[in-house]
Structures are given as structure tokens and as C-alpha cells.
Automatic annotation (TrEMBL):
Keywords, ordered alphabetically: ATP-binding, Lyase, Nucleotide-binding
Naturally occurring in which organism (per UniProt): Agarivorans gilvus
PANTHER family per UniProt: PHOSPHONATES UTILIZATION ATP-BINDING PROTEIN PHNK-RELATED
GO MF, any single term: lyase activity
Domain ABC transporter: 24-268
Protein name per its UniProtKB record: Phosphonate C-P lyase system protein PhnK
């Protein structure tokens, strides 16, 4: 067992023991728009059921990295390997159509602005049902039933099933976006600041829900956030970025309780002063 696994809670240790290869692995990955803008020579591994938080200052390359990891931005060099139970593929060796299919079948992508991940002129139920139809479901009754179940799971009243997302509050839209992503049971979910732009109380409710879903569905998640409290609540591991470089990484509680790099220390102390 790796050092990392021995330091995780027993359920996570068991999960890591069962698996030999990472669900997602980035090797020597680089995408620089200009010196210091993007990220460079980055390596990471994510295992099944594990939550990795990527934190760092604005402009440090977090979103660019998330896009490259999730198959939405071809890097200048390096590889991103996704290993499902059936096969192991380098995302950027696939054709565009193959990559799109893999993303649809295996990944969830939760955007900071929910309307970027929803169809605003399609009903809430339709937003969830559409993903099921893309996955091959054809029975209207089943699709509606699953949509209702998912609305309930994300705490949206079933009476809103035929309403358009644009009539929802920001928090509800974000919960609907999460339902749309999770209805097809992806193994891996990428989230970019999922609680950004929401009121504090709405954020807290959404975080509780995310924590519950991540644990119940044993999701692997890569979450970008500038909020260390979000990282602490959701993540097993954390990666701290500054100007396109990973300056520190490790178990989330350990890094946040005992930061070694001066920049991580600054991030942690600035939260304590708030
Ligand atoms: N398409 C692009 N073309 C040129 N430069 C870009 C592009 N996208 C991002 N950048 C630059 O790359 C750097 C990293 O951007 P990125 O959005 O990845 O950072 P971030 O850490 O996610 O920031 P934030 O927390 O503000 O979202 C920034 O300096 C940004 O201006």
C-alpha cells in the first residue's frame, strides 16, 4: 500500500487497495498561453472514489488544467490517460468524435455558471432526461421517473419538473446542473468553482449536498476552487498552484494544517485572518 493510502480513512484505503491503476493520470502535461500563463510539466494521478481539489490564486492555471484533464483543451505536450474497467485510453490520441463520446459516457462536467451546463430553454425534467436519451434510454415513463428521482435527490420540488431553468434561483440551477451530470452515473466528475457566485447560506447547502452525493455514489472528483473551506470539506487530496506550477500537494487536511510552501502558508493565513 502506498503512503498516501495508509493516511486515508479506512473506506478510502480499501478503495485504493482494490485498484492498481489510476482512473485518471496526467504525465508531463503542459499548456502555456504565454510564460507563466497556463501550466507546465504537470503530473497527477486520481484514483476511483477520490476527490482532488486544485486551489490557487486567480490566473494560476486551474481552469486551463481542468479543461485539459477533462478532454476539452488539447495540451501542447504530455498525456492524459483515462482507465475505465474496460480499457485505458490517452484522451488526446482519440479522434474528436471518440473523445466527445468518452466524455459523454464517463465524465460529468459542472461549470461555475450553471447555465453554461444547462439548456436554458428546455424544462428541468428535459435537462435531466436529455442525458438519459443520449445514453440510449427511450422509454418516456422511465425517463420522467428518473428525472423526478434526481430532482428529489438534489432537493428540487417535483412540481418544478416542467419549469425552465431560467426561472430557478442560482442555487437551484446549480443543483439541476449537478442532477443533469450525475443521472448517467459518470465515474469521474470535474467541477470548476461549483459554489462560486452563490450566497454563503446557499453555498453551505450545496456543499452539504455535494458531500453527500460524492460519498453515496463514490465519485472521483477533480474540483477547482479558490475557497480552502470547500477543499477541506470535500477533498481527500489537494494541489496548490501558483503561476502554472504545483507548489505543494498532499493530503488535504495535512497540507492545510501544516503548509510547507510559503505560498500555501500565505493562502492558509489569509483565510484565518478573514
Ligand atoms: N484562451 C486563452 N488565451 C490566452 N490566455 C488565456 C486563455 N485562457 C486563459 N488564459 C490565461 O492563462 C492564465 C491561466 O488562466 P486560468 O483561467 O486557467 O486561471 P485560473 O487559475 O482558473 O483563474 P481564475 O481562478 O481567475 O478562474 C491566465 O493568465 C489567463 O489570462
Amino acid at each position: 500500500m502506498t503512503n498516501l493510502a495508509t493516511q486515508l480513512p479506512p473506506t478510502k484505503q480499501a478503495l485504493l487497495l482494490e485498484q492498481h491503476e489510476a482512473l485518471l493520470e496526467a504525465c508531463n502535461l503542459s499548456m502555456l498561453y504565454a510564460p507563466g500563463k497556463g501550466f507546465e510539466a504537470l503530473n497527477l494521478q486520481l484514483y476511483r472514489g477520490e476527490v482532488l481539489a486544485i486551489v490557487g490564486e486567480s490566473g494560476s492555471g486551474k481552469t486551463t488544467l481542468l479543461k485539459a484533464l477533462s478532454g476539452r483543451l488539447t495540451p501542447q505536450s504530455g498525456s492524459v490517460t483515462f482507465s475505465s474497467e474496460q480499457h485505458s485510453v490517452d484522451l488526446y490520441q482519440l479522434s474528436e468524435a471518440q473523445r466527445r463520446r468518452l466524455i459523454r459516457e464517463h465524465f460529468g462536467i459542472v461549470h461555475q455558471h450553471p447555465l453554461d451546463g444547462l439548456r436554458p430553454m428546455v424544462s428541468a425534467g428535459g435537462n435531466i432526461g436529455e442525458r438519459l436519451m443520449e445514453a440510449g434510454c427511450r422509454h418516456y415513463g422511465d425517463i420522467r421517473k428518473q428525472a423526478l428521482n434526481w430532482l428529489k435527490a438534489v432537493e428540487i420540488d417535483s412540481s418544478r419538473i416542467d419549469d425552465l431553468p431560467i426561472t430557478f434561483s442560482g442555487g437551484m440551477q446549480q443543483r439541476l446542473q449537478i442532477a443533469r451530470n450525475l443521472v448517467t452515473h459518470p465515474q469521474l466528475v470535474f467541477m470548476d468553482e461549483p459554489t462560486g457566485g452563490l450566497d454563503v447560506s446557499v453555498q453551505a447547502r450545496l456543499l452539504d449536498l455535494l458531500r453527500k452525493l460524492v460519498s453515496e455514489l463514490q465519485l472521483a472528483v477533480v474540483i477547482v476552487t479558490h475557497d480552502l473551506a470547500v477543499a477541506r470539506l470535500l477533498a481527500d487530496r489537494i494541489m496548490v498552484m501558483k503561476q502554472g506550477q504545483v507548489v505543494e500537494s498532499g493530503l488535504c487536511d495535512q497540507v492545510l494544517d501544516d503548509p510547507h510552501h510559503a505560498y500555501t502558508q500565505l493562502l492558509v493565513s489569509s483565510v484565518l485572518q478573514q
